[in-house]
Sequence to fold (294 residues):
Amino acid sequence: MKEGLVVERVAQLIRVRTEEGKELRGIPRGKVLKKTRIYAGDRVLGEEIDRETFAIEEVKNRKNLLIRPPIANVDRVICVVTVEMPEFDNHLLDSLLVVYDHVGCEPVIVFNKVDLLGDEGRKELERWTEIYSSAGYDVVHVSAETGEGLEKVVDLVEGEICILAGPSGVGKSSILKRLTGAELKTQEVSEKTERGRHTTTGVKLLPFGRGSFLGDTPGFSKVEVLDFVRRRDVKNYFREFLRYECKYPDCTHTREPGCEVKKALAEGEVSCERFKSYLKMIKEYIEDLEEICG
Ligand SMILES: Nc1nc2c(ncn2[C@@H]2O[C@H](COP(=O)(O)OP(=O)(O)OP(=O)(O)O)[C@@H](O)[C@H]2O)c(=O)[nH]1
Ligand SMILES: [Mg+2]
Ligand SMILES: [Zn+2]
Fold:
């Protein structure tokens, strides 16, 4: 049997890309459909039954399955944010980092629209870049307008399934267009709702870089971490906290004695912005926060 990747799923239409790069219409056998639905990102096994058709015999186990839009086996999430237009919301980014890490997608932080920044904006960009790089994330500066920096995004991924995520209006679709060269035929994957707005009804993964695939997602303005991650697990997805060993292994880094994370916070090794974001996520407050962070 041959292996293929489901690169498109729109209503009943499935498109499978074979290892040789041929795109065929995927027709799942009845026994497959009894077991599971088929999503973009699924790795499938089957036969090419004619020049246009790939009969799907089996769906391989998924590493993960993201919702909205449904995409399976996502290796990387490219978290797109901006300093300006729209204004940077660090708590929203931190929430994305936690939730995506939790489902097994390695995040990359991309600051887009750097072409818009003046001196003040540049300073902000550098400040946040320092905070996130020291926390242990890859941070890239790009402009979908000028194309600057996008090659660095390509360099970070190879043969991976990636998605673009982030707030509305930060330029996710513009980056997708730049990276894949594809003019997203929105009409093809959208339909007009009664309110006259276009909503995505299908999912498409586009090839880019060195054997990677990229999917777009719609923007959002809020992520409630506790809808996805248990409260006591949130601390495990603040990767800079993992460098410290507190007195109690289940330390929540709030009021426990012998907390090394709080010590690092007081010493400026852990960022106050990140720590405040953590407290907000777990809906906690500590009395000595002002004292430590000012
Ligand atoms: N100056 C500048 N404008 C940009 C850049 N990238 C995108 N834009 C503009 O920002 C606006 C929003 O871009 P989109 O690509 O639609 O943003 P999006 O993140 O896909 O938005 P949603 O789909 O609503 O989540 C558009 O008007 C783009 O032309 C950039 O690098 N620089
Ligand atoms: Mg978009
Ligand atoms: Zn602690």
Q: What stands out?
A: The pocket of guanosine-5'-triphosphate (ligand 1) is lined by residues 112-113, 115-116, 143-145, 168-174, 218-219 (CB under 6 Å).
